[in-house]
């Protein structure tokens, strides 16, 4: 057990599964000696060699396609797409091949692969390196989508993703990677967290805040402030996996608080939290005593300039204001 | 087998009909008599399978669309006969021929085509997605070039697991201008993967002729960009296809990396169910029909005294009967249970 960052926890997970299972290998741009764009695969090339930590040309379609073909034929590939925005270059391989092959073949093939990629804004990377695309992935039947919010979850969810027999899109938030503020004690060795199970990260009775990934951390900060300053008691539900979605944990929470606020970094139009709110209305309308609301990204690309980027993205302040508005305390 | 064989098979001219060599000769293959006969059987099975499917189309029994392989049979049969049963193939949207050549059950194929629940994909895939992992077939693909990355992955598995298997990735001329074509050829070359790209140049990507889409004489010239070997051959000559693919398959197994073969051939029918074929003349189609891969091969077998004309006729008649039986099987098969619609999306 040692205190490690989110990035180190994912690296730890990769190392553990590679030690345990010879069919696991890594593919991606600059992941070898260089250690990956964010340094996540540092040291793995030295430990496992160039056959199992494979540097690739800049060929997203071929990288993802290679993972699909090797997965069908008996391997468990983990591929890195440097920024989630670059998945656009290999979208056919994700949407038409990885996701649909099992169904199209009448259930005869398994596609056990993990596509890891850095997601989200808040780091000044501009419109082509900062998007939150989870709604696109979650929309496609056949894909699972994982969005961990802390190091402990990241490791356990990653190991589950590698041993899952489906294509898993593992969205890692670049603002969580190296931030020591979010470092945690993480057990050594193998442990798993099931895909499709959320977790209440902070129990409360006044309002349910539903979020994933980095927005869980922002929501927790807002909840702490409101508790301290105004004795407002927020419950924070971390989805951890958005597909499969743990709708039960959300309904359970709303049953207790009667109020639902969803927080997400992606643009609000056609967003994933739109799906969450729809399901809550369909399955638990009577549980609600106020209209659900979303705190989401503004409907524009993620801009470069620091002040514009802050304006576009949700923040602790915006979450706090949203809660106060909802509770009529502003 | 020597490299000179590949040089002899290589053709320089762009159009098959420019060739003088109508006759098939076989100086190099070590095929046994039964194997040679089997190739004829497979070609007839493909021809009559597709002819029956065409009847389904005319009668309106094919829901959606499908793509017929009539006229291109020698490519699938020659190439697949040249590899082992446990070598993988990946196919494309015009994929029925590859399935039959790889040994798929024609009853289950026919059932899939008319949407029955016992078809190869339980009625969920249809013509463009028939896959059969038992015969090492990674499936047809509805996206042009879509199977190329998958084939690279299968070849990488062979390499990582230290197996001496080879993968044939069948593609059409249309895919050669797609991004995945470039990425796949390049990445597989860098990694020296055991992969044969077999490009069936049937002269048209839907309605666009190869001349209107590509400004080089031979698609195999692209090999230079990837530092790999490649050749253009007569894709309507099943013996040449067999010989060239066997030669390269052995090279691949020894770790020499991928190769690119362009088989010149011709699509006798339209692109898909609906095609008025305004982009080509009847004369052109008739000219290519003179290079019928089945008639040429049958004449070769008879002239080489491998089979008699009567035996050839018996093989053809049996193919017709087998296909009729497949139609009967498919007709009598049940439609899928509606509860199946949401199964097979995720694996356990």
Main features:
heterodimer; A: 330 residues; alpha/beta; Rossmann fold; 2 domains; 7-stranded mixed beta sheet; 14 strands; 37% helix; 21% strand; B: 348 residues; 5-stranded parallel beta sheet; two-stranded antiparallel sheet; 13 helices
Please provide a written account of the structure.
The complex is a heterodimer of chains A (330) and B (348). In chain A, the strands form three sheets. Chain A has a seven-stranded mixed beta sheet, with helices on both faces. Chain A is 37% helix and 21% strand. Chain A has two domains: 2-186, Thiamin diphosphate (ThDP)-binding fold, Pyr/PP domains (Rossmann fold); 199-326, 3-Layer(aba) Sandwich (Rossmann fold). In chain A, 57% of the residues are buried. By secondary structure, chain A is an alpha/beta fold. The longest helix of chain A has 17 residues, at 214-230. Chain B has a single domain, classed as Rossmann fold (3-Layer(aba) Sandwich). Chain B is of the alpha/beta class and 348 residues long. The model of chain B has no long low-confidence stretch (mean pLDDT 92). The A-B interface holds A 25, 51-52, 54, 56-57, 59, 61-75, 77, 92-93, 96-97, 101-112, 141-142, 144, 165-166 and B 88, 90, 119-125, 129, 131-133, 138-139, 141-143, 146, 148-158, 160-161, 179-180, 183-184, 186-187, 190-191, 343-348.
How confident overall, as mean pLDDT of chain A? 97
Radius of gyration of chain A: 19 Å
Total helices of chain A: the number is 12
The CATH topology of chain B corresponds to: Rossmann fold
Give me the number of helical elements of chain B: 13
The span between the termini of chain A is: 44 Å
Residue runs with pLDDT of under 50 for 5 or more positions of chain A: none
CATH homologous superfamily heading of chain B? Thiamin diphosphate (ThDP)-binding fold, Pyr/PP domains
The CATH architecture term of chain B is 3-Layer(aba) Sandwich
- CATH hierarchy class name of chain B: Alpha Beta
What is the straight-line distance between the termini of chain B? 47 Å
Strand content of chain B: 5-15%
| Alpha carbon gyration radius of chain B | 19 Å
| String of helices and strands of chain B | HHHEHHHEHEEEHHEHEHHH
Assembly level: heterodimer
| CATH homologous superfamily annotation of the largest domain in chain A | Thiamin diphosphate (ThDP)-binding fold, Pyr/PP domains
Major interchain interface with per-chain residue totals: A-B, 44 and 46 residues
Helix/strand-derived class of chain B?
alpha/beta
């Amino acid at each position: 057990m040692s205190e490690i960052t989110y990035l180190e926890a994912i690296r730890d997970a990769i190392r553990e599964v590679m030690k345990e299972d010879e069919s696991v290998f890594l593919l991606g741009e600059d992941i070898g000696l260089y250690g990956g764009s964010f340094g996540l695969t540092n040291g793995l090339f030295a430990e496992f060699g160039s056959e199992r930590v494979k540097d690739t040309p800049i060929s997203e379609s071929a990288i993802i396609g290679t993972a699909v073909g090797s997965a069908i034929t008996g391997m468990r590939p983990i591929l890195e797409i440097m920024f989630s925005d670059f998945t656009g270059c290999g979208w056919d391989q994700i949407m038409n091949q990885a996701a649909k092959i099992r169904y199209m073949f009448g259930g005869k093939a398994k596609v056990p692969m993990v596509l890891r990629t850095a997601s989200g804004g808040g780091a000044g990377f501009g419109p082509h390196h900062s998007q939150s695309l989870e709604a696109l992935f979650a929309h496609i039947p056949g894909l699972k989508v994982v969005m961990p919010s802390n190091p402990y979850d990241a490791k356990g969810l990653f190991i589950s993703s590698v041993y899952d027999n489906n294509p898993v899109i593992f969205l890692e938030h670049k603002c969580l990677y190296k931030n020591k503020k979010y470092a945690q004690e993480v057990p050594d060795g193998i442990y798993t967290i099931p895909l499709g199970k959320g977790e209440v990260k902070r129990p409360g009775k006044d309002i349910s805040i539903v979020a994933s990934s980095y927005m869980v951390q922002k929501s927790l900060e807002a909840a702490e402030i409101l508790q301290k300053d105004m004795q407002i008691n927020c419950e924070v539900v971390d989805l951890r996996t958005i597909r499969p979605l743990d709708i039960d944990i959300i309904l359970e929470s709303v049953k207790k608080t009667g109020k639902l606020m969803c927080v997400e970094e992606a643009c609000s139009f056609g967003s994933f939290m739109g799906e969450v709110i729809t399901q809550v209305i369909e399955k638990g309308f009577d549980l609600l005593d106020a209209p659900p609301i979303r705190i989401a990204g503004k409907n524009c690309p993620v801009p470069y300039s620091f002040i514009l980027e802050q304006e576009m993205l949700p923040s602790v302040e915006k979450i706090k204001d949203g809660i106060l508005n909802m509770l009529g305390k502003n | 087998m020597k490299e000179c064989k590949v040089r002899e098979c290589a053709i320089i001219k762009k159009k098959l009909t420019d060739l003088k060599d109508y006759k098939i000769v076989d100086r190099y293959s070590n095929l046994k008599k039964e194997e040679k006969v089997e190739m004829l059987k497979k070609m007839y099975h493909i021809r009559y399978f597709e002819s029956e499917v065409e009847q389904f189309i005319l009668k309106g029994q094919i829901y959606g669309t499908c793509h017929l392989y009539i006229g291109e049979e020698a490519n699938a049969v020659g190439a697949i006969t040249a590899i082992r049963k446990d070598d993988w193939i990946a196919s494309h949207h015009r994929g029925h021929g590859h399935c039959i050549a790889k040994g798929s059950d024609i009853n289950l194929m026919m059932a899939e085509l008319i949407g029955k629940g016992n078809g190869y994909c339980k009625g969920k895939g249809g013509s463009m997605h028939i896959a059969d992992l038992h015969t090492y077939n990674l499936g047809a693909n509805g996206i042009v070039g879509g199977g190329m990355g998958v084939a690279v992955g299968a070849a990488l598995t062979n390499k990582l697991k230290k197996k001496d298997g080879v993968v044939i990735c069948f593609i059409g001329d249309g895919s050669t201008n797609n991004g995945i074509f470039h990425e796949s050829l390049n990445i597989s070359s860098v990694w020296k993967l055991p992969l044969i790209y077999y490009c069936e140049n049937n002269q048209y990507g839907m309605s666009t002729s190869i001349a209107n889409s590509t400004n080089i004489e031979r698609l195999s010239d692209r090999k230079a960009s990837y530092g790999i070997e490649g050749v253009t051959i007569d894709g309507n000559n099943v013996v040449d296809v067999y010989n060239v693919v066997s030669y390269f398959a052995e090279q691949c197994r020894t770790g020499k990396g991928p190769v690119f073969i362009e088989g010149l051939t011709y699509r006798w029918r339209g692109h898909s169910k609906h095609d008025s074929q305004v982009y080509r003349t009847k004369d052109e189609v008739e000219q290519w029909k003179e290079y019928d891969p089945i008639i040429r091969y049958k004449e070769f077998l008879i002239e080489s005294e491998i089979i008699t004309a009567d035996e050839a006729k018996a093989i053809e008649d049996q193919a017709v009967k087998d296909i009729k039986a497949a139609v009967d099987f498919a007709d009598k098969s049940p439609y899928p249970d509606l509860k199946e619609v949401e199964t097979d999306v995720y694996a356990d």
